[in-house]
Amino acid sequence: MLKSISVFFPAYNDAGTISTMIIRAAQTLTTLTDDYEIIVINDGSTDDTGSILDEMAKHYPTTLRIFHRAQPSGYGGVLRAGFLAAQKEWVFYTDGDAQYDARELALLAQAVTDKVDMAQGYKIKRHDPFHRVIIGILYQYFVKIIFGLSIRDVDCDFRLMRRKIFDHIELESITGTITFEMVKKIQDAGYKIVEVPVHHWYRQYGQSQFFNFPRVARTLVALLGWWWRLVIKKEHLKTTKG
Asked: Which of 96, 142, 169, 178 could form a disulfide with 14 if both were Cys (CB 3.0 to 4.6 A apart)?
């Protein structure tokens, strides 16, 4: 069993799925530890996400913490806020859109040992429209190659990490580039990563916030900036927190 764990869901227009994510997480956490919390940051949603979260908080008054933001802060911004809010020894996060099953957190927990710092999921099979699958594959291999990343699935946002990692590495991204920034910094800091296969499901509600061509183009531009900083200049190896 894990000593304690914070489960964090960033949520943006996830009214159709976020309650299921919370319920499944709560059910799973009771089998893993007696000391847990669930955090959801509603990142400026324009649907019913906010009201649904407020209702869920009535059912989990001691374990569910809800934060509402009036305006979206970007994927990187909301992840950084979630890691900062986490109070337990371990922190797990995945998106609130239910493309991953929160119950499979148990699989990550089973992979944890005293020597493991991060359990990283990888998709058994990606269930997305064909064009998104192709873009995702191209993006992933491109990022892995230019940043020298060892994990097989860079954009699988299904991760269980020791909270102390963020006492030593500093995340700066406010966009989706936080995914490879985080993995690169954790890898280069020497933390032990294990990988676990997890299921990926078709999106049942809402729309992807990443897979549109203007956003992909902006991400590629930002990616080159991070490549210069992390691979060429190696800024993160020269200065660390703590």
From this structure: 96
